């Protein structure tokens, strides 16, 4: 009997050791392959998910949730998973580090278009950005439509249009005019004028700059020179500050994860819809330390921060491969129109209304418009 024990003991010890080692190997392999959790976020309701949490001002609700749960959060919109980045670091992870996997476009199935057609014909909604069609579109924008040469060759046409607008406004002196629009450029101009009316100091400084550079008696008779306008430092700072406080696309356009990937130690699963809360990032007090919610164009004077997609604290046009290709056109148009309307007219609110009482509420939609459209009266310029 004792002999049998002696014989079996080493065998049972070997089996025990083998079981322990194999368990250890299995658990460590499992923990190695266990994916990190989804980003945190508010608890979803059954079926509808977090839809009721978003409210009418989704950019503000999402900012609020990022303050509670962190810079990368996730929510459920019905069955769709939504991941939102709300800090400079989270935006850089999405738009730079994981740009290749997170730059497909999320296209809502509710759009009243044939998806296949949309994919082939509209670059904005091209669901995939690794195919030749999308690359060809981008190359056409870069090398032809928005190349420096093309943009400069169309300058005269834009200058003529700006001069036509000034003549039109001269016929409307003293009348109340709506300064509203729904596209990205007009939205930016409406917010810039709103801020300039409220900030007399900035308006005067801009007028001084325009007078110094462009208002000799001869120049006043000529259309504005777009090239000169696009180099005016204070005007440039005003355009940047407007796009910082009032980015026309507050959540950019929705991206989609074409593959599962790990971002900031969280899993972003394939198919997730991804937003970057540009609005929240450009008001983040840890980045914009000097009174982030106030209109202060001076913060951009002497600063290298730009909207070309390298500074992740300031992303009105996005960054990475899906970044807006229209930047050169948009910035020239906005600067030219602002320069034309400020150089040629004194603007005031109707009925002697106090600019401090201007309604600054936003209306969240495809672009972030003023809830109450801006009403202004053009007067003959006193300078
Ligand atoms: C103030 C004016 C504008 C702003 C703030 C703006 C902003 C943006 C933003 C945030 C995106 C999405 C980027 C992304 O998905 O990562 C975008 C995409 C785009 N923008 Fe703009 N944009 C402006 C003007 C323009 C203009 C004037 C044009 C052309 C005439 C234009 C053409 C496009 C196109 C084609 C895309 C889609 C690019 C793609 O999906 O590959 N944008 N824009």
Q: What's the main sheet like?
A: 5 strands, mixed
CATH class of the domain at 156-248 and 290-380: Mainly Alpha
Residues in helices, as a percent range: 40-55%
Strand order of the largest sheet: 1-2-8-5-3
Mean pLDDT: 89
According to CATH, the fold-level topology of the domain at 156-248 and 290-380 is Cytochrome p450
Low-confidence stretches: 1-31
Pfam families: p450 (PF00067)
Protein name: Cytochrome P450
InterPro entries: Cyt_P450 (IPR001128), Cyt_P450_CS (IPR017972), Cyt_P450_E_grp-I (IPR002401), Cyt_P450_sf (IPR036396)
GO molecular function: heme binding; iron ion binding; monooxygenase activity; oxidoreductase activity, acting on paired donors, with incorporation or reduction of molecular oxygen
Describe the structure in brief.
The protein is α+β, with helices and mostly antiparallel strands and 383 residues long. The chain has helices at residues 2-33, 51-54, 58-69, 88-97, 115-121, 132-145, 148-153, 155-170, 184-198, 200-214, 217-221, 226-229, 233-245, 278-281, 327-344, and strands spanning 72-77, 80-85, 104-105, 177-178, 255-256, 261-263, 266-268, 273-276, 345-348, 362-363, 369-370, 375-380. The protein has a domain at 156-248 and 290-380: Cytochrome p450 (Orthogonal Bundle).
Describe the structure.
It is a single chain. With 383 residues, the chain is an alpha+beta fold. The chain has a domain at 156-248 and 290-380: Cytochrome p450, CATH 1.10.630. Helices cover 46% and strands 11% of the residues. The chain is built from 15 helices and twelve strands. It has helices at 2-33, 51-54, 58-69, 88-97, 115-121, 132-145, 148-153, 155-170, 184-198, 200-214, 217-221, 226-229, 233-245, 278-281, 327-344; strands at residues 72-77, 80-85, 104-105, 177-178, 255-256, 261-263, 266-268, 273-276, 345-348, 362-363, 369-370, 375-380. Strands 1-2-8-5-3 form a five-stranded mixed β-sheet. The protein has a three-stranded antiparallel β-sheet with strand order 4-12-9. A hairpin with a 2-residue loop joins strand 6 (261-263) and strand 7 (266-268). The relative contact order is 0.16. The model is unreliable at 1-31 (pLDDT under 50). Bound molecules: protoporphyrin IX containing FE. Protoporphyrin IX containing FE binds next to helix 9 and helix 15.
């Amino acid at each position: 009997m004792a002999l049998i024990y002696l014989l079996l003991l080493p065998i049972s010890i070997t089996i025990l050791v083998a079981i322990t080692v194999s368990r250890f190997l299995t658990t460590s392999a499992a923990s190695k392959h266990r994916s990190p959790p989804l980003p945190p976020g508010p608890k979803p309701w059954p079926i509808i998910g977090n839809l009721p949490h978003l409210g009418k001002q989704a950019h503000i609700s999402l900012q609020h949730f990022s303050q509670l749960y962190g810079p990368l959060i996730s929510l459920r919109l019905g069955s769709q998973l939504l991941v939102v980045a709300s800090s400079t670091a989270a935006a850089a992870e999405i738009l730079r580090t994981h740009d290749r996997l997170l730059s497909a476009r999320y296209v809502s199935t509710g759009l009243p278009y044939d998806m296949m057609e949309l994919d082939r014909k509209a670059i904005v909604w091209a669901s995939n950005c690794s195919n030749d069609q999308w690359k060809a579109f981008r190359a056409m924008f870069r090398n032809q439509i928005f190349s420096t040469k093309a943009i400069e060759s169309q300058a005269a046409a834009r200058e003529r249009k700006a001069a036509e607008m000034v003549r039109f406004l001269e016929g409307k002196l003293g009348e109340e005019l709506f300064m509203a629009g729904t596209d990205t450029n007009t939205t930016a101009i409406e917010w810039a004028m709103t801020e300039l009316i409220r900030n007399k100091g900035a308006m005067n400084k801009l007028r001084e700059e325009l007078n110094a550079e462009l208002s000799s008696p001869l120049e006043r008779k000529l259309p504005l020179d777009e090239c000169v306008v696009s180099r005016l430092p204070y005007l440039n700072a005003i355009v940047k500050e407007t796009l910082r406080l009032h980015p026309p696309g507050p959540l950019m356009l929705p991206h989609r994860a074409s593959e599962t990937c790990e971002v900031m130690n969280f899993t972003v699963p394939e198919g997730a819809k991804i937003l970057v809360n540009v609005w929240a990032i450009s008001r983040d007090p840890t980045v914009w330390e000097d009174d982030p919610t106030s209109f202060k164009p001076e913060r951009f004077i002497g600063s290298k921060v730009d909207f070309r997609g390298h500074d992740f604290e300031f992303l009105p046009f996005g960054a990475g491969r899906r970044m807006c290709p229209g930047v050169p056109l948009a910035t020239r148009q906005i600067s030219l129109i602002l320069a034309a309307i400020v150089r040629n007219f004194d603007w005031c609110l109707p009925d002697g209304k106090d600019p401090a009482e201007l309604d600054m509420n936003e209306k969240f939609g495809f672009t972030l418009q003023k809830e109450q459209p801006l009403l202004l009266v053009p007067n003959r310029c006193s300078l």
